Amino acid sequence: MLTSIIIANIIISLISLIGGASIFSKKLFSKRAIPYLVAFAAGVILTTVFFDMFPEALHKALEINYNGNIFAPAFFGLLISFFIERFVLWFHHHESTHGLKPTLFLVTFGDAIHNFIDGLTIAGTYLANPTLGIVTTIAIASHEIPQELADFSIYIHSGLTKVQALAINLLTAITAVAGGIAGFYFLHSLKYGLPMLLSLSSGVFIYIAGSDLIPHLHKHFSEQRKWGQTIPFLIGIVLMYFIISFLNE
Description:
The protein has helices spanning 2-22, 34-63, 72-94, 102-128, 130-157, 162-173, 175-190, 194-219, 221-228, 230-247.
């Protein structure tokens, strides 16, 4: 069973290569295209948080009869992100970070948590029913491509080269394998922390969208015209909404 869980999570991790291959398209990730991709990323992230991560956190909280405020970890995620960004900005002022934006570190942190929880989810479903585990793996994989494309857009926007963006994305993807292994051995005790982790990660992603991505769209509003960035923003929202709705049927 452990072998099946690991293989399933490796497949999920390798899905990032599909999105990664697209970053080497000069047209897709040209300097002119990045603002549109940032708009797409903002739509994908916000939809994922409010239609997938928060509902899942609430669902898991009900499963374990959690009586606390499930939104509190999201609030702390926002605060942690603020202080991380402040620290990175301070570090950038005193040292050299080669122009990298604090958003890079926040996205990496949030994505690693998200992938780890995906790994736990796959492990849990495989332990319950191997067939359900396969279905869950397919479901998670189906929304990875637009999510990974959004992540790559943010990495490039943050100042990474395409190769660096691919390397970091693959490293965060490996946390899914770690989540699968942890789930196999410790899922019974870990499940009580899942709602809080999902909520915390949601707070991090909300901060990323609200403090960096959306302000970037407003900053370049005059350059991209009224609908230039609005359309990819809406495409990101609609695409993720239908993917999430289809998977939850």
